[in-house]
Amino acid sequence: MRAGGITLLGLAALLPTPAAAMDDAAAPATAPAAAPTSPGEPANTHAAGLDFFMSTDADHTDIYRAGLNLDIGHRDWDRYWGVAVEKSWYRPTGSKTTSRDRVYLRYADKSDSWAWNGRIGTDGDTVLGSADIHNNARFRQEYFIERDIVETRMGLDRGLYYTFAGAAIDLPADDRNVLTVVAGAQAFSGKNMRLHLRANYVHVLKSDWGLSAQVRTRYFYSTHPREYDYYSPRWYLQAVPVLQLRRYSGGWRYMIAGGIGAQRDATSGWQPSRYLAAQVSSPSFGRNWFLKANAEYSNTSLTSGVYDYLQLSLSLTRAF
């Protein structure tokens, strides 16, 4: 049984690679550049937004999440502070549905060389949230931390949580070739500590098309495998070649990526690994509305075979 979807593989911070290479290495030269508000243009001071998320998997584990964000101070899409309330519904392995409520403080800001964001809150039982800080240097660095619940039946019933912290760095060889390395540690309730290592190589095939070829690899090692009911072999290894196309039109950004590779863990042999993702986002400067939608499919190898996972998300924000 796979536990709670993608988060329990430690991938909430890893699948969308924290460092910039995956997003920007193949961006066409015509991509719209971020620009500060002009001196004569009044800045928005508040914002409100809605977030929706759903996921489902081969074990009929369904997760739905709805959130409301209210920015009391909103200078830009990456400079704000406010609150967020969230309600989640969990149905592990087709069993009864369990709901959880959360409230967060959220914050984002930046300097000339660094940008940071985070949200910290609670579900009534413990501190939850995430934080991230990165710079804009050629060898881009990023540091992140996340704490959340284990989204399985045992995790929800017993109140099992994990804390995941790590760092990423971009190692560019030139303008067309970038290696991103991510390392992290994930501590679960109980004794298990999971160590993560991920390397992603990006080669820009045609920059004006936004086309890149990538090799995405990841490995983790668990100190106490199979401690509870989440997917936790002693070790797991995956390598997936990926083609990604990113285009801009009228300020809108479109991305599609897909690949087929191989994966295995400590108790199973090599099996196919598939990945497919699509994303669309609206212009974020000079407009009061911002929309972002994402769809992603992946699978994980288990002793019983290949395990499918699908997630969808939608975010809509209005500044005023």
Topology:
Layout: H1 21-24, E1 47-57, E2 62-76, E3 79-91, E4 98-110, E5 114-122, E6 127-135, E7 141-149, H2 153-158, E8 161-174, E9 177-188, E10 193-206, E11 211-222, E12 235-249, E13 252-265, E14 268-281, E15 289-302, E16 305-319
N-C termini distance: 46 Å
Q: What's the count of strands? A: 16
The major pleated sheet works out as: 16 strands, antiparallel, barrel
What gyration radius follows from the Cα positions, in whole Å? 20 Å
Class of secondary structure makeup: mainly beta
Low-confidence stretches: 1-22, 28-41
SSE string, helices as H and strands as E: HEEEEEEEHEEEEEEEEE
- CATH architecture name: Beta Barrel
Mean pLDDT: 87
What CATH calls the topology is: Porin
Range of strand content: over 45%
Q: Please identify the top-level CATH class.
A: Mainly Beta
Percent range of helical residues: under 10%
Supply the number of structural domains.
1
Strand order, largest beta sheet = 1-2-3-4-5-6-7-8-9-10-11-12-13-14-15-16
Overall, the morphology is: globular
Number of helices: 2
